[in-house]
Amino acid sequence: MASGVLIQSRPSVRLPRAIAFVAGVLVLVALGVLGWLYSVVRSALPQLDGKLQVPGLTASVTVLRDEHGIPTIDAINLDDLFFAQGYVTAQDRLFQMDGMRRFAAGELAEVVGPDALKHDRQQRVLGMRIAARKTIETISADDRSRLEAYARGVNAFIESHGDRLPIEFRLLHYSPKPWTSEDSALIGAYMVQELSTTPQQALVREKVLAKLGPELTADLYVNSSWRDRRPTVARPTLKQDTDDDDSGSDSSVAKLVEREHSAPGEPLLLGILFELEQSTRAQTRLREQVADFFADRPLVLGSNDWVVSGAHTVSGKPLLSNDMHLGHQMPNLWYEAHLRCGGPACGTFDVAGVTLPGYPYVIVGHNRRIAWGFTNVGPAIEDAYVETFNENGQYLTPEGWKSPELRHEIIHVKGQEDVALEVATTRHGPIVTELVPGETRKLALRWTLYDGVRNPFFAVNSAQNWAQFVRGFSEFDAPGQNVVYADVDGNIGYHATGKIPIRASGDGSLPENGSDNAHEWTGYIPFDKLPSVFNPSSGIIATANSRVTPDNYPYSISAEWEAPWRSARIYRILESGKKFSAADMLALQTDIYSDLDRILAEKFVYAIDHSRQASVRVKAAAEILRQWDGRMTADSAAPTIAVRGREELVRLLLEPKLGPTPADPAQEKATLSWKSYEWLMDTVWLENVVQHQPKRWLPDTYPNYDELLTAAVESAVTAPKVPADLNAWKWGSFNPVEIQHPIFGRVPLLRRWTAPGVREQSGSQFTVKAVSRTHGPSERMTVDLADLDHSTLNLVTGEAGNFLSPYYLDQWNAWYQNSTFAWPFSQTAVQKASMHQLVLEGTK
Known about the structure:
Helix content: 25-40%
Strand content: 15-25%
Strand order of the largest sheet: 1-29-2-3-7-8-9-10-17-18-22
Number of helices: 25
């Protein structure tokens, strides 16, 4: 008994000590891991001050950085300027650059494993690297030379920092390959892919037409609206009827916005990262930057650009604004830079704005005399052709049977054997059948990208007036953009751009027979025939991805414009008669009023008031909607009710026509159902149905549209997980913004340090501030042509890709809270704002 008592007493004395010992060891190991991580990440921070010897430069280049780390790169010749641009961009964004080129080329599986194999197969079938090579063949010798200079700069950084590269390379156990001009062309191809409307819509439309017939199909695939505001079509008068003003008063644009409030540790860390690599989500975050090319999904757009003449501004000179809405990523897509060349051979090259990591020049911004901004046109530049093959593997053409070209691809897969892929290419393009779930026909893809993409940006960056600017953009092939323009002389203008095919028949909205020439491309719309306007009498030009062609336009540019809700709202504000300042432009960029959802909310309220079936709960929903002002504010329940009611209304209308979704989720993409219908003007179809209430769309189970609309709201507010108190159903939680780091987002200890994460937000897809969980304004810019130093610009998160950099997340709060930053441009202003000075010196 005594010994038993002694044995039982030992744990009570020693167990706490053992626990403390183990805990102490774990703390020491964790501190060691964090210390190792910190030292590795810190070692990769770029040098910002002093001097650096950089082999490859012919003369010294000065790099000034301001309080946000934004570089002004000053060289005395163009080769050194673009060399330095490549070097400096690699200082901040090398891992992102490498990820983007791997993503575009289909080379992700080589470094992240088999989870990326499906994506890589898609990119290899599409032949993205082949297209990049074609681009290098297409562009001028001068442009090739500048791409090569940029590549040399990137490689100079890689070669001199082999032991101090971004930590992501260390964690994924690989080193970046040398950069090439072809890789820069791949970055351009990446943007063409990001901004293309895929032929998937044509394949779905074909099924819908077969099931519903021409009348209902024409209803669904509407491509114009009485709300369209075409930039080349002036309204008879700019006087506004303010009786139905939704904002209380448009006399002050600043009142439009509801502000929102809102080593020793290496083995252990690599073990964590090994588990991270097994997670599909961890490896797919990078490739989620662009959806599968043939996925059943809407192309989420939201870019806005506008320019107003001095007649509408406080200063008497134009204001030009641009916010391009794209998929969020970490770090953000754009890299801000100012490029100056002061030598005798440079001409007048002094340009600032946003650049693409991996690509030279400024993409959107201004120089000393002109400014410009972009929105996506969304032209029909991809066609699907159904090819007829025989048993010998040949395909039918008007000249008889021909053998396709065969392209052999090898996909390297980390931890597994290589995967061999053979791609057949017809006269139209690659056979892409394997990319289309449920498709058995041999589908060939024709895409203007395969012709090569000419590069106009040196000419645009150098342009000094409208004529030079237009001449530069006449060489712009893809992605087709709406470009607005302003200059210091007070001129404003607009031109659609891009290489857009003319077809023998059809408009690309349906797949066509590839064995004849009935639907061949016969040429391209001449640049001077694309929509354009210079100094319109209204003094106002705006685009927002919606229709830009007048009624009598002789060519087909797009089979699928964006709905006109944003463009109509922008014009309404700009035509208010106010004299605008740069602050007013930011207020409009962050406007969160949704005309679509306010209109439907009123329809829902009216229907519920007149319904015989309305429940107590749906009547409570109607009271919330009745008091709503139409703003998609994060802390309001009304937007959630309106949007969920709209979504349920679409289901109730389409499910009887197109069928329910299949029980097996794996069959959803291959089976026609009500969810198959995705169309950028689907809300125009919905408005037409609700407004005109045609009998052909009223489901048999409802006696009238009042009961149908009531049932939609009823379904929305009684769905699972809807709070009992409808006032607690906040929009910000329903439509948050999520930005995570592709690697560190899966490590709980690092997640909070390395990305904003998930945050509530105001706005919606149909507000001027067009936002979803994964998309939003990638930058906000306003150029003041009265004084370029009074211009403003901000990114989403920051310039840096290293999470220990002070410039990694320093722009996030401004983006999230609808603020912005001063954007110095003149030599005096840049020098005054300078916080760092680095001199890059060539070696003799």
